[in-house]
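A quick aside before the break. I want you to see a complete sequence-to-structure record at least once, exactly as it would be stored in a machine-readable document. Don't worry about memorizing anything.
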Amino acid sequence: MMSFLKVFFPSWNFFNTYNDLPTLEFKIPNTNSWQKVFSPPQRTFWFWFINPRVNYLHAVNNHLLLWLQELQVDPPNHGEALLQNSHFKIAKKMAEQELRIKNISMPYELRLVLISVLDKSKNVILEFPVSM
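That is the input. The structure line, written in tokens, reads:
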């Protein structure tokens, strides 16, 4: 009888695995504070029905995950290879657009960071300056 009840009460063990979250951070030169490029949106009632910002942030996160996987498989040997990488170009353009909306002008530094879900520690993967 108890084994039959397991059909109605599944095991939720798939929530026990955690992945680190990739994010882009920026820093204006001559400052020490790094800030997130993509800040989480304000939640409102209409968020349940219309949420293009969340869809965009989901696409950004997916892109950063793909770029991170590519960097882990084939890390660039020198700076020129990184500048020609399509994932780098897309991430840079997304960050430029987001920072333009926040009225932050060039030059600035960007970095790709892995943030641990469990202890919020940061692991810097890649750091690069952005200028005109």
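Two observations worth writing down. The longest strand covers residues 122-130. The chain has one domain: 17-130. We'll return to this after the break.
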